[in-house]
Amino acid sequence: MLKEIENRRSIRNYKNDNIDKKIIFDILNAGIKAPSAKNNQPWRFLIVNSDIKNKISDKMIEIYGPNKTAEVIKTVPYLILVYNKDNEYFNHLSIGAAIENILLEAENIGLGTLWIGYIKKIEDYVKELVNIDHELVSAIAIGVKNENPLERPRLTLDEVLLNEN
User: Fold this and answer.
1) Strand 135-143's sheet: what is its strand order?
2) Mean pLDDT over all residues of the chain?
3) What is the pLDDT of residues 99-149, one digit of tens each?
4) DSSP H/E element including 84
5) What one-character-per-residue DSSP string does 98-135 give?
6) What is the C-alpha separation between 165 and 154, in angstroms, rounded?
7) Which one-letter DSSP state was computed for residue 66?
8) Is residue 118 within 8 Å of 99, Cβ to Cβ?
């Protein structure tokens, strides 16, 4: 198994280190190499600036109270918004594959990530904020890790493998 699969963790604490935007582009290029149904490549990405990150974080806190996800969004160097370009049936599966590639490539080069589905709860607000009309699927925080969490418990293969009828 790839060491990136074994070692990847959801990181919620980041250093304030600068990361060259070219590195972020390299990570996103790994995402666009993902398989997609009918080669539709439905993913679209938006790298948001600090002002937008802060507004997203503030809105989450306003609606849901102080929370770790909002704190991550505010403090992480890069927040990538992930969009669905159209409503093709299998797009979400394809976009999930692209996100996984991004997470694994970031791990490969030593950066941490957090896959944020929680942003869907404020999708309408984000849509107005960034003026993007595509469906917001998720967000990805990317930065230099300031923690090294232990592996979380996983079910065994026996626990997830269904028996034949």
Assistant:
1) 43-48, 78-84, 135-143, 112-116
2) 95
3) 999 999 999 999 999 999 999 999 999 999 999 999 999 999 999 999 999
4) strand 78-84
5) HHHHHHHHHHHTT-EEEEE-GGGGGHHHHHHHHT--SE
6) 25
7) S
8) no
Number of H helices, E strands in the chain: 7, 4
Residue 66: how many CA atoms within 13 Å on its side-chain side? 0
- Using DSSP's 3-state secondary structure scheme, residue 87 falls into coil
Is there a contact between 33 and 108 (Cβ–Cβ < 8 Å)?
no
Give the helix, strand, coil percentages of the chain, each rounded to 5.
Answer: 45, 20, 35
Q: Please, are residues 146 and 13 in contact by the beta-carbon 8 Å criterion?
A: yes
Would the pTM count as exceeding 0.90? yes
What is the amino acid identity at position 43? W
Neighbours of 62 (CB within 10 A): 11
Backbone φ, ψ for residue 81 (5° rounding) = -90, 135
